[in-house]
Amino acid sequence: MNMEFKERVKELRESRELSQMQLAIKLGVSQSAVAKWELGKTEPTASAIIAVAKLFNETTDFVLGLED
User: Fold this and answer.
1) Relative to the CA of 32, which of 3, 23, 26, 41 has its CA 20 to 30 Å away?
2) What is the pLDDT of residue 27?
3) How far apart are CA 67 and CA 65, in angstroms?
4) CATH H-level, domain 5-63: superfamily
């Protein structure tokens, strides 16, 4: 079963032992934006999805949970 973005970003962040704040700083977004993504309250922008993928050296499809 594929994960959703909210699960994937949290998994990637925790696997690198980053706090939400540390991830937010690396992505140039607020900590609350990261928290809302992980809770599924908001969707990331296309540029944020690309930034997450580049940061973790993953494809955007992987980050979005479209592939394992």
Assistant:
1) 3
2) 97
3) 5
4) lambda repressor-like DNA-binding domains (1.10.260.40)
